[in-house]
Write a structure and sequence with these properties.
homotetramer, mainly alpha, Four Helix Bundle (Hemerythrin (Met), subunit A), Helix Hairpins, 2 domains, 11 helices, 0% strand, flat
């Protein structure tokens, strides 16, 4: 049994680059995910759903069967990864990021039978969680998240500054314009919506200042927004450069070694 | 014949820097392109088109003749580039990026005679394709595209994250506010318009949230937008730096060599 | 007495990393600050304040007692830092950034008894100053501010350019559209609100150009805004890289030394 | 006479860092500029102008006298810079950037007597040109402009791409929504206003798409806008880094030399 399980892990995780079956397997799962997303998007058109509802339902049953079998196969195959204990290998998979994503791809469907009165629309949104399965196949996303994770301390600092700016600007706006626009700025959390939409420079314009003091606060908030975005971008750019420099230092060391050997 | 063809390629591609005829040729074609764009822009004013319609039509006929002759000259001249096979040199040009652009500059005009009922306005937009001919003369654009192409893996990852954020935010918005704003958020694709306009921090404000849950989703979407823009910018900045570092490593190596020679 | 004072500084400033009491003390003060901010935010809901007003008042009295004792303890403890003069140690603390923040956390409460007719809502905003106490516990914020401070000369230049762009664009807009939109662009300062909201690319849309000349000014202002944001971001990214390079130079020097020793 | 002239240049240009008179002179001129800007801003309030019009007029006459004398003094003093020909030193100053700025600070006032029917409001805007005199005193601005100038080739490429995107998106928008919104998108130049406001992510919302095709074009334009801003920022960040690297290479060379000498 163990060789079959190990081969299955090899195929499902596509660990070998020149593995043709592994690549077809990747493509099949990715296609199923994209078809599922397309289905959820199309179903949202009332006219389409009314006409083809049965087809969508059929496809969902098929998808659930497909992803359930995939999940069970993975769970079974991972039993062989740890030579001492099958349970440990399975638990490691089940509690890994991808194990949780694979489970979340099918779980909501089964839960609806346990909780009868569940809103079916929430189930539909949850089907979009299947999108996360695609990241199985993209190591670039992991690199990106790693670069962000490496700078978590700097992002924490920006987050702290951002929180202070949001709270301060929304509190000021609430006290200054709360009386002038009671429908839009009735509380600090209501003013926070204005603050975030201004700081991120989105600026829908559904809430905008009408008093001179409010306009001054808006201008300051807009500047703080630009500064925060710049800080954010600066940290990310510097994080990517850090990776670059690290690789370069290694490269130069080797160059120097080769140089020293040659001389 | 061959020397004439080769000289023609030299002139049309402006391969020699100190070639006066080549420079005049560049200037002539660039001027024709800019005049064409100006004509398309001016024609869009109803008042101007009504009055000077005949002039614009005459200029278009002249332009078609000009660009057609240019295309045929290039096609003929490229026959001499490959010494073994004229057909191969011509095919290489015809299927290159610039060959396709040169063809697209005139093709739509001839197509209208094949398809009689064609909307003339589409023909006018297609005339703007001639703008791409200008990039013949700008190697900086190629450098830029190269820098972006070098980072295609990182951009792919950002694109994947962006796609997830767009789909997730628009699906959530549709389910949360679809009932409250049936005219604006009637389907997930409709909500995608809101999502993209928010994520890119454009924020026209023609679709904005009205329920508290929708406002929370908007705020999260705005933050994700800022993060995505920052990722994007960080990758591009890092890509330019990579070029910089590469050049610097080469420079330092030469410096070190010179240094070692001197000592 | 001195050993107790020095131990108290150690706990309150959490100078030793493995100090359990210091960590609990940090956590306690941070929790009080967050509870205070939550209270201010919740109080802003009229319905909540009407029902639970007495509770909020009680919590404020308790907070004032807590932060007052904390401030007095710090003031007392810092008397031991300078062995020669207790007054100097205390003065150094009292006039340091954190000393001022700690004082501002409680001072507004006591001031209301001196100035009887004071607007109570201003007192509530001032309670948000307690948020700044959190930065006691975040050295990352200091790193960030240091990076910005290192580039103050470049930021000064961007600030100067920004000021010129704001004044020029608002003056132009006022002269061009002042007559067309007298309610929104009645003076240069009024036009400055439009200018800042445009330059920062927020663009609420409450003030937007209606004449062709005004639209041209808006387009130029929007471009200048993008350029300014890019300059800003570029300086910050470069400042972070400078830190990076500085660290790398030190690292390489050590590497080279180790290398030379080994050879 | 020559020593006096040279001393005057020294004072007016503040070439010696520890020159007290030079510093006072700088401060005096900078204060006059800021007072002039304040005056122009305040005059724009109709109520203030009506009441204090005479004062503002008096201050303007005083300012013109002040800046005229300053200009003439500079012109006279620069006659001594070139030992061979006074005319050449004066011409060099008069046609330098600062010479032109100094002239523009006073010229509009005198021109009104030559052209009697001139709009007085244009004269007021032109008084803001005096702001540029401040850059006399900020070398950081020159560094900034130098960094931008060094990357003019890359900026040219971005500008070319931007021009194509603006023309293409506005032409598409005009053809797609021109009929649906004839009041807002009546011509390609009118659509360009929408295009620029979208590309720069300002998004006032005064012109926004109403047809599905227009919304798709808007989404693409918004993405192109984000990409252009990112390119822009990346080039600027990379330009600042280039300066950094250049300085670092020099620093390392010196380090290496010192190292080689020591060994």
């Amino acid at each position: 049994m163990r060789p079959i399980q190990l081969r299955l892990v090899q195929i499902l995780e596509h660990t070998k680059d020149d593995d043709r079956i592994g690549r077809y397997c990747d493509l099949l799962i990715a296609s199923m995910v994209l078809l599922n997303v397309t289905a959820v998007v199309l179903e949202s058109f009332a006219a389409i759903y009314t006409t083809y509802g049965a087809w969508f339902h059929g496809f969902e049953i098929f998808s659930i069967a497909f992803f359930s079998i995939e999940y069970l196969l993975r769970l079974w195959a991972y039993g062989a990864v740890d030579p001492d204990s099958p349970a440990r290998g399975r638990r490691d998979y089940a509690f890994s990021f991808y194990g949780v994503v694979d489970l979340l791809a099918v779980l909501p469907f089964y839960i609806q039978f346990l909780i009868p009165g569940l809103d079916l629309r929430i189930l539909r949104i949850l089907r979009l969680l299947r999108l996360l399965k695609l990241s199985h196949y993209s190591s670039a996303v992991e690199d990106l998240l790693q670069a962000i994770y490496d700078e978590r301390r700097a992002f924490g600092a920006v987050g702290y500054i951002l929180a202070i700016v949001i709270i301060a600007s929304s509190a000021l706006m609430y006290y200054v314009e709360g009386a002038a626009q009671p429908d839009k700025l009735s509380s600090i959390p209501a003013a926070m919506y204005w603050s975030v939409i201004s700081l991120t420079t989105v600026g829908y314009g559904d809430v905008s200042p009408i008093t001179p003091a409010g306009k001054v606060i808006s201008m300051l908030t807009a500047f703080m927004g630009v500064a925060t975005v710049a800080l954010f971008t600066g940290i990310i750019a510097s994080s990517f450069n850090k990776q670059l420099v690290r690789r370069k230092v290694i490269y130069e060391q080797e160059l120097r070694k080769a140089f020293a050997d040659g001389v």
